[in-house]
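Deliverable D4.2, example record:
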Amino acid sequence: MSYSVSIVVPIFNEEGNVADLHREIKEVCVRERYDYEIIFINDGSVDDSDSICRTLHPLKYIAFRKNFGQTAAMDAGIKAAKKEFIVTMDGDRQNDPNDIPAMLDYLTANHLDVVSGWRKNRKDTFMKRFISRGANFLRKLLVHDGIHDSGCSLKAYRAECFQGINLYGEQHRFIPALLKIKGFTVGEIVVQHRPRTSGKTKYNWHRTIKGFVDMISVWFWNKYASRPLHILGGLGILFIMIGGGCGIWSVVLFAMGRKMSRNIMPPILTVFFMIMGVLMFVFGLMSEILMKIYYGVQVDQSYSIKDIIENEEEQADRV
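Output generated by the structure prediction step:
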């Protein structure tokens, strides 16, 4: 089946991979007779990735002014996409473009909105696989997106999934979870994972910590984004009740003739929990108001684009 598809690829210091990856994607799209566009987003590379990308045809090329992160690059590419389906993948050639047809077929045959790749046989280092498994375990406890490998960048989407969606932080890993919260259907198929042949991995402990923080954010968004007063107000009421209990404890001690100078902890706890309870409840009300404002305004993007270049297909390729 012929599809209308945008292939979105963030690039960061991948001078040894971009030309071959572009060639592979193009070969797949031409073979399958897709109505396609290839979008590379240069996330502030300091090697020759920029100059190489500017020579590739056909290509929609977006260059950032500096490194803003993979999620920002993914967001810019998705917003630039014009086709019916969007496929995202990494720029290191570990994702295989030959998996794209099967993903699109699976998506349409099962009437899904998202299909995520599952790197069942990963070609990464032991430490990277160990960290990924730990992150996947935590994700299953908190996010419940129903897939095995949320960290795999090779995913296929219907374009309407991203209407009104802004990505930030390290949230590219949790796009299926964010979309599932909004009611989109998510599926998964096994894909190839190739060993890296050029360049260096961009993953480190900084990104692991950021990913965990964003996982908490997605969990909160899933549970309480539309009703923050439920969690903050609930905690406020709990603290007020504990403060009330401490107050009763203080009164009982006073009635028993105990000197407050020797039993100062109950009054201190009373004041502390009462103040915390009122503050939590007020924060809940303020968060409720902020969420209503959030849903009513356009959120500013977290990155800055330097150039957008569209290299048309060369005449020799059209013949």
